[in-house]
Amino acid sequence: xxxxxxxxxxxxxxxxxxxxxxxxxxxxxxxxxxxxxxxxxxxxxxxxxxxxxxxxxxxxxxxxxxxxxxxxxxxxxxxxxxxxxxxxxxxxxxxxxxxxxxxxxxxxxxxxxxxxxxxxxxxxxxxxxxxxxxxxxxxxxxxxxxxxxxxxxxxxxxxxxxxxxxxxxxxxxxxxxxxxxxxxxxxxxxxxxxxxxxxxxxxxxxxxxxxxxxxxxxxxxxxxxxxxxxxxxxxxxxxxxxxxxxxxxxxxxxxxxxxxxxxxxxxxxxxxxxxxxxxxxxxxxxxxxxxxxxxxxxxxxxxxxxxxxxxxxxxxx
Length: 317
Description:
Layout: E1 5-8, H1 16-27, H2 32-40, E2 46-50, E3 54-61, E4 64-68, E5 74-78, E6 84-90, E7 93-99, E8 103-107, E9 113-117, E10 121-128, H3 130-139, E11 151-155, H4 157-164, H5 175-195, H6 213-224, H7 233-240, H8 244-255, H9 259-277, H10 282-288, H11 294-305, H12 309-316
Antiparallel strand pairs: 1-7, 2-3, 3-10, 4-9, 5-8, 5-10, 6-7, 6-9, 8-11
Helix pairs in contact: 3-5, 4-5, 5-9, 6-7, 7-8, 10-11
C-alpha cells in the first residue's frame, strides 16, 4: 500500500496573536471519547474503557467535514472494511490517504486537524493515555517518548490487526475480556513505541527462566481462586513484584501462554467439566464462571471449541 500524499505549504510562522490562540487551544484537551462523539455526531456501536490503560471503541459514522479539537489521549484507529480516500489538514500541511484494512491513523494527544471523509465509514479506535506510553517505555528501559508521530491511513498491518482483535470483546465485562484488553493495550503501546514514536527502540528481553516458582504459584492461585478475584494485569504483576511489561513476558516463558490465554484455557476446562459432569443449566454454568450472560458464555465457548455448549454436552454424554 502506498504512503499518504503530504503537501507542505511554505507560509511563514504564525503571528503572535495567532500563536497565542493556538497555544491556549492546546492547553484545553477534551477526553477523546467525548470529542469523537462531538465531531462524529453519533455514539459508538461498542466501547470498553479501563481507567488504568485507556479505551477501545467501534464506530460507524457518516461523512465528516470538521475540525477535531485537541484531545487528552492519543487516538489510534484502523478500518475494518472498505476503501475510501480521506483528507487531513494540520496547520499548513495536508495529508491524503486511503482508509482500508491494514492501515492506521494516529492523532497525537493535543493536536488538532481538519478532516474530510466523504462516505460512511467503520472505524475501530484506541484511546491511549500518554502516561501508558511513558510507563511501558520505562518498564522496557527505553527513553521516555515524545508525542506519537502523526499518521494518516499509514500502512501497518501489525498495529491494525492488534486493534481489530479488540473489536469482538468490547461488550463483555468479564475478568477474562478485561485482562485481554489490558494485555492488548500493553502490546499496542510497545508496537507504537517501536514504529510510531520516532525513536530508536531497544527492548530488553524477558529475564531467562520466567517467574520464580513462588511467584508463578501465587499468580496461578490468583487466576484460579474465584471469579471475583482481582485478576487485572496490574494486580498480577504487583503480587509478583514485577512491572506489567516484564510480568507478561516472564509468565509466558514459565507457562507457554500469556496470562489471558492461560486463564481462557482454565475457564474452558472448567466449563467442559461442568457441562460433562453436572446437570446445571447453561445459564447457571455461565454465571458460575463469571460470564455476563449465557449468550456471552456460549459465544466464547464456540470460539474456542467450534461448538455450542449444549451440542458439546450432548456429544460428550
